[in-house]
Amino acid sequence: xxxxxxxxxxxxxxxxxxxxxxxxxxxxxxxxxxxxxxxxxxxxxxxxxxxxxxxxxxxxxxxxxxxxxxxxxxxxxxxxxxxxxxxxxxxxxxxxxxxxxxxxxxxxxxxxxxxxxxxxxxxxxxxxxxxxx
Length: 133
What we know:
This protein has helices spanning 2-26, 48-55, 62-73, 96-113, 118-122, 126-132, and strands at residues 77-79, 82-84, 90-91.
C-alpha cells in the first residue's frame, strides 16, 4: 500500500514541478517602479491569499470568496480576541454581525478539517466530500 502512495505522491510532485516550470515561463515580470501601489489596509496574514487573488483578478475558490466577503462585511482581522475593525480601529468584543461571521467561519473551518465535508459539496468538490465520509 505504501508503494502505491509513494508512486502517487511522486507522480503528483512531478506534475506540479512541470506545471510550475510552464507557469514560470509564462509569468511576466515587473519592477517595483512599474507597479501601482494599492493601500490594502490591515489584513491578517491568514487572509492575505484571498486579498491578493482578488487584487490580481484571479478566480478564487469558494472558501477564499467567503473570506473576502468576511473582510469586507465584518472585520479585517480577528486574532486572539482582538478585532481589527474595517476602519482600522481595534476592539475586544464582536458585534452581533461579526459574531455571526465568526461562527460561520469556525463551522466552515471545522467541517473542512475534521468534519464530514458537508461544505465540500457546495464548493463543487463532491468527490472529496465522498472521501470524507
